[in-house]
Specification:
Blueprint lengths: L13 H10 L6 H20 L6 H6 L14 H9 L4 E4 L3 H4 L10 E6 L2 E8 L2 E4 L8 E3 L1 H13 L3 E6 L6 H8 L11 H24 L8 H44 L10 H19 L13 H38 L1
Antiparallel strand pairs: 1-6, 2-3, 2-6, 3-4, 4-5
Helix pairs in contact: 2-4, 9-11, 10-11
């Protein structure tokens, strides 16, 4: 692509860009094209003067030139005369005479297209076609299968298309592309679109700078900082949860200590620890039987105290049941807290 000569749009000099892109070099300048335009104007003036310099047609002709203007526009006559210097001729592609020839566009070498005073070249370099429109940021590759459709679309949009007949001058790009084929990953944009995109990027950059200034230069948190903030928040939640669990466990221990004290007040002290309820019941029965034997004289029926072994078992069973129920409730509470914490962490 770098070897292809491509002049970009400057002012209204599209006719100059069209010719130079066609010939693949800086062959024409605005001064040279203006000279051709003035020559054409003089030839036309002389023909008009043959009818009399006082005629209305002649006075109308003396109005500003139709072959050029101050913006840099040049007519088809100027382009045609400029190409005659190189032995090249323009034939209207849209004309019925040329269409009757049924020539496949792929067999031509180049086209010049015009619409509303804008000129651009479509040329074959090597074995590939390129749109060398000066309004594009670079040459646009056109496939062989797409060429006919591209020209038909231009005609539908109102373009006039001219076939360039004759031998074009040799150029580096044509020689190079005879040996290799190029691929185009990204289509070139219109120059106006590129400028608009650059302008939008500058506006977005300015808006970002204003936001950063509004934040006292601290800027907005990037993704890493946001992840860090979330991790810290989860860590604080975990610490709070651990504190709550510790408080809850202390409350359980105090509650269990209170229950144990109540049980100890009703039961004798033993050297064993972690006795089962059945062992406690048997030891309690033995204790009361011994006390009863010491208090009652022989021969008197044994009157057991109100705290019978059944009542003791019931009291002890109730105390153990309450302790077990409290422990189970606490365990369920802790599991619920952990579950909620994990759910929040996933969010």
């Amino acid at each position: 692509m770098e070897s292809i000569f491509h002049e970009k749009q400057e002012g209204s000099l599209c006719a100059q860009h069209c010719l130079n892109n066609l010939l693949q070099g800086e062959y024409f300048s605005p001064v040279e094209l203006s000279s051709i335009a003035h020559q054409l104007d003089e030839e036309e003036r002389m023909r008009m003067a043959e009818g009399g310099v006082t005629s209305e047609d002649y006075r109308t002709f003396l109005q500003p030139s139709g072959n050029m203007d101050d913006s840099g526009f040049f007519s088809i006559q100027v382009i045609s005369n400029a190409l005659k210097v190189w032995g090249l001729e323009l034939i209207l592609f849209n004309s019925p005479e040329y269409q009757r020839l049924r020539i496949d566009p792929i067999n031509e070498r180049s086209f010049i297209c015009n619409y509303k005073e804008h000129w651009f070249t479509v040329r074959k370099l090597g074995k590939q076609w390129f749109n060398l429109n000066s309004l594009l940021t670079g040459p646009e590759l056109i496939s062989d299968t797409y060429l006919a459709l591209f020209l038909a679309q231009l005609q539908q949009e109102g373009y006039s298309i001219f076939v360039v007949k004759g031998d074009l001058p040799d150029c580096e790009a044509d020689q190079l592309l005879q040996m290799i084929r190029v691929q185009q990953m990204h289509r070139p944009k219109l120059i106006g679109e590129e400028l608009a995109q650059l302008k939008e990027q500058r506006v977005q950059k300015t808006d970002l700078e204003r936001v950063l200034e509004a934040n006292d230069g601290s800027g907005m948190l990037d993704e890493d900082e946001e992840d860090l903030q979330r991790a810290l928040a989860l860590s604080r939640q975990e610490i709070d949860l651990e504190d709550e669990e510790a408080d809850l466990r202390r409350a359980i221990q105090l509650s269990m200590q209170g229950t144990s004290r109540n049980i100890c007040q009703d039961t004798p002290q033993t050297s064993g620890t972690h006795l089962t309820s059945e062992e406690l019941r048997k030891r309690r029965e033995a204790y009361f039987e011994k006390q009863q034997q010491q208090q009652d004289p022989p021969g008197h029926p044994c009157e057991k105290p109100n705290t019978s072994s059944g009542a003791l078992d019931s009291d002890l069973g109730d105390a153990m049941s309450e302790e077990d129920m409290l422990q189970a409730a606490v365990t369920m509470s802790l599991e619920t807290v952990r579950s909620n914490f994990k759910t929040e962490g996933k969010k």
